[in-house]
Each structure stands twice: as structure tokens, then as C-alpha cells.
């Protein structure tokens, strides 16, 4: 049994960690932080956790966190970096759901996140937490940078064709759509029902911070030339889910893409390749730690198309964080993550 702490327990990914960890037989959640709700019982704010969690929120305190075996940071960007060094020194493992340790180049991180990195020495140590490409490094890591939700959905969708070298990595397109929970639980005008409901729009079309994260991930997959991805996200008036439609130009006409994808992910517990021509839906992964995808090609065209879906709060965040914790702490990778999707 290990003890874990969650920093940011009132946010969408924090409460999703609580929901999933309630069913994990090897984990005791020992403390949950919130500055705005300190002192309030967790199950009072989230009645779905009545009977599963008898803790009250407490103010974040590094000394208290240092009593845990592992700490999840489910906090906005640029928060974890101030505490991680101290926790690692105290022998605590860390999974950071924010972006603080995802980008290996400090200057690139500072450009996209608009602030100075306060723990640059830890950037090199952090392991990018996409188990499908980094499983062995994650097992030995003290600090895991959990990938972004779009980045997970898009990197997994491109992974087999990039590794196999059967497309041009410099001409990739990723058309992403996310539900509103991807933007977090804090109040924002653009996320109000009256603003985002009954409507559909692109955002960050001139550059999103997951763009460099996706390209860095594709470089780890051994792209033969520098990968370039045109990524445009969209906000969909639903709560959970991401669908990414990916386009790549085929460089090897003899390649059997369906076989490449099925072989690459055959032993992956959390990636599902559907039959050729299928259309995965976000609701097929709602609440589930799965990335589900399917391949298409239009007649007479040299583009391969992949439709890839995840639940942004599960495989895109809390589920993947628990998958990483399982690897770091020697549990079965699937522990606590076996439940199928919620339908309808
Ligand atoms: N939502 C999603 O789909 C995904 C989110 N992520 C990333 O995960 C992280 C959490 O996201 P999400 O759950 O949506 O965020 P929310 O905005 O919903 O929640 C943020 C949480 O952090 C706490 N918090 C805020 N500021 C601080 C601070 N300075 N110190 C300590 N705690 C703080 C808040 O509580 P309080 O203010 O009361 O302390 C709250 O509990 C973000 O970095 C996000 O980018 C990654 C993948 C997907
Ligand atoms: C709908 C919506 O706003 N989605 C978020 C998803 C990104 C996210 O959560 O990623 P980080 O972990 O890098 O912050 C966004 O586009 O900013």
C-alpha cells in the first residue's frame, strides 16, 4: 500500500484522480489540497465521493506533502515547479499533470508558458509520461511529466506511422476538438453555457502550446526528418472528450497501415485500433483510460487519415497519471483503470 497526496483536489483532473483512486487496491489517498476550500470535507463538495473519501481539503504545505510516497500535481501550469525539488529531496515521487516538465528545452517552455522556469535543473530528469513510448524510463523515474490531453490523443494517433517511416513527418495536420472540461473548472467567460453552448469554434489557430509538445513527442518516435505538425484545436459544446482527425502524406505506397497500427499497439492495454474505416466516438471512451482510433484513406488520394479519441480527463490526464504511478510504484499497469466507458 502506498500513500498519495493530490495538490489541486477541487479541479476537474484532481477530482477525477479521486474517483479513479477510490477503486485502486494499492493506494491510500492521504491528503488533498485546495486553498479555496481548505477545511471543507471533500465529500461535501463532491457527494459522489461520499463513502469513498473521508478527508477534508487542506492548504498545500510541502512538509505535509513530503509525508506521502507519491504526489500528484493537478494544478495550473507554473505551480508544481516550485515544490517538486523539495519533494524529490525528501524521497517523494511526483507525477505532474501540468506542463511544467513536459518540454525538454527551457527556452521553448518559457516562450509558450510566458514565465521563467524556477526548476530548470529538473527538466532533464523528468520523464515524459506517455507509456506507449517511454514505459521503461517511467518505471525508473522519480518525476513524471504527464502529457497534455491533445498531445496524448494526437501523438498516439501518429505514433505507428512515424515509427515505421511510412509518411512524410514534415507535413502532418492535426484537427483537434475538445469538450469544455479541457479548460479546467475555474470560471471563464468563454466557457459559459451561454457563450460556448450551441456553438463551435477554433481557437489558438496561430499556435497552441501543445504544438511544440506534440513535435517533441514525434521526435522521440525517431522521425527521420524534423516533424512539423499544423495543429488547430476547437471547442465543442460537450463536457468530456477529445476527437483528433489526423492527416499525413504517405511516403511508402506498399505500407499496410492497418497492420502497422494493429501490430504496434497489440500489447498496449490502453490503445484500441478499430477495424479499417471505423468512426470512433468520444462517448466510447467516456470515463475510460483508452485511446481508440481508426484509419481511413479516400480514393485516389495519397493521404492517410486517423481519427483518434480519448477522454481528456482520463487517458488525457488523471487515468494516464495513475497508469504512470502504477509503473513508477511497481503495480500492474492496469490497476484501478479497468472500468469500461460510461454509456450513453
Ligand atoms: N482539464 C483537462 O482536461 C486537462 C488538464 N491538464 C492539466 O492539469 C492541470 C489541472 O487541470 P484542471 O484540473 O483542469 O484545473 P482546474 O482549474 O480545474 O483545477 C486547478 C486546481 O488547482 C488548485 N490550484 C490553483 N492554483 C493553485 C496554486 N497556486 N497552488 C496550489 N493549488 C492551486 C485549485 O484549487 P484552489 O485554487 O482551491 O487551491 C484547483 O483545485 C492543469 O495544469 C491542466 O493544464 C492536463 C490534461 C487535461
Ligand atoms: C478546451 C480547452 O481549453 N482545452 C485546453 C486543453 C489543454 C490542456 O489542458 O493542456 P495543458 O495541460 O497544457 O494546460 C486548452 O486548449 O488549453
From TrEMBL:
The active site is at 149. One of its GO terms (molecular function) is N-acetyl-gamma-glutamyl-phosphate reductase activity. This is N-acetyl-gamma-glutamyl-phosphate reductase. It comes from the Bacteria. Catalyzes the NADPH-dependent reduction of N-acetyl-5-glutamyl phosphate to yield N-acetyl-L-glutamate 5-semialdehyde. The lineage of its organism: Bacteria, Pseudomonadati, Pseudomonadota, Gammaproteobacteria, Oceanospirillales. GO terms for cellular component: cytoplasm. The keyword Cytoplasm applies. The gene is argC. One of its GO terms (biological process) is L-arginine biosynthetic process. Pathway: Amino-acid biosynthesis; L-arginine biosynthesis; N(2)-acetyl-L-ornithine from L-glutamate: step 3/4. It holds the Pfam family Semialdhyde_dh. Belongs to the NAGSA dehydrogenase family. Type 1 subfamily. It comes from Vreelandella halophila. PROSITE patterns: ARGC. Residues 3-141 form the Semialdehyde dehydrogenase NAD-binding domain. It catalyses: N-acetyl-L-glutamate 5-semialdehyde + phosphate + NADP(+) = N-acetyl-L-glutamyl 5-phosphate + NADPH + H(+). It is found in: Cytoplasm.
Amino acid at each position: 500500500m502506498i500513500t498519495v497526496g493530490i495538490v489541486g483536489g477541487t479541479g476537474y483532473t484532481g477530482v477525477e484522480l479521486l474517483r479513479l483512486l477510490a477503486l485502486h487496491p494499492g493506494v491510500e489517498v492521504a491528503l488533498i489540497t485546495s486553498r479555496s476550500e481548505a477545511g471543507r470535507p471533500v465529500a461535501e463538495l463532491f457527494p459522489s465521493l461520499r463513502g469513498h473519501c473521508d478527508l477534508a481539503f487542506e492548504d498545500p504545505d510541502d512538509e505535509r506533502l513530503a509525508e506521502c510516497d507519491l504526489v500528484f500535481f493537478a494544478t495550473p501550469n507554473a505551480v508544481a515547479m516550485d515544490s517538486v525539488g523539495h519533494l524529490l529531496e525528501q524521497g517523494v515521487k511526483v507525477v505532474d499533470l501540468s506542463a511544467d516538465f513536459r518540454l525538454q528545452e527551457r527556452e521553448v517552455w518559457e516562450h509558450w508558458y510566458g514565465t521563467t522556469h524556477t526548476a530548470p535543473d529538473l527538466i532533464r530528469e523528468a520523464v515524459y509520461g506517455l507509456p506507449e513510448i517511454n514505459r521503461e524510463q517511467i518505471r525508473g523515474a522519480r518525476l513524471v511529466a504527464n502529457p497534455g490531453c491533445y498531445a496524448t490523443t494526437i501523438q498516439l494517433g501518429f505514433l505507428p506511422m512515424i515509427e515505421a517511416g511510412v509518411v512524410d513527418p514534415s507535413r502532418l495536420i492535426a484537427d483537434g476538438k475538445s469538450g469544455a472540461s479541457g479548460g479546467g473548472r475555474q470560471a471563464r467567460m468563454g466557457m459559459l453555457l451561454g457563450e460556448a453552448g450551441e456553438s463551435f469554434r477554433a481557437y489558438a489557430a496561430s499556435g497552441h502550446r501543445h504544438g511544440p509538445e506534440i513535435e517533441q513527442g514525434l521526435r522521440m518516435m525517431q522521425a527521420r526528418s524534423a516533424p512539423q505538425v499544423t495543429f488547430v484545436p476547437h471547442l465543442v459544446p460537450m463536457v468530456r472528450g477529445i476527437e483528433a482527425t489526423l492527416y499525413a502524406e504517405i511516403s511508402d505506397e506498399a505500407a499496410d497501415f492497418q497492420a502497422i497500427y494493429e501490430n504496434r499497439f497489440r500489447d498496449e492495454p490502453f490503445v484500441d485500433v478499430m477495424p479499417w474505416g471505423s468512426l470512433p466516438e468520444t462517448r466510447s471512451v467516456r470515463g475510460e483510460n483508452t485511446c481508440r482510433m481508426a484509419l481511413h484513406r479516400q480514393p485516389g488520394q495519397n493521404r492517410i487519415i486517423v481519427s483518434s479519441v480519448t477522454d481528456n480527463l482520463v487517458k488525457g490526464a488523471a487515468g494516464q497519471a495513475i497508469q504512470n504511478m502504477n509503473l513508477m510504484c511497481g503495480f500492474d499497469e492496469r490497476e484501478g483503470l479497468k472500468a469500461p466507458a460510461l454509456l450513453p
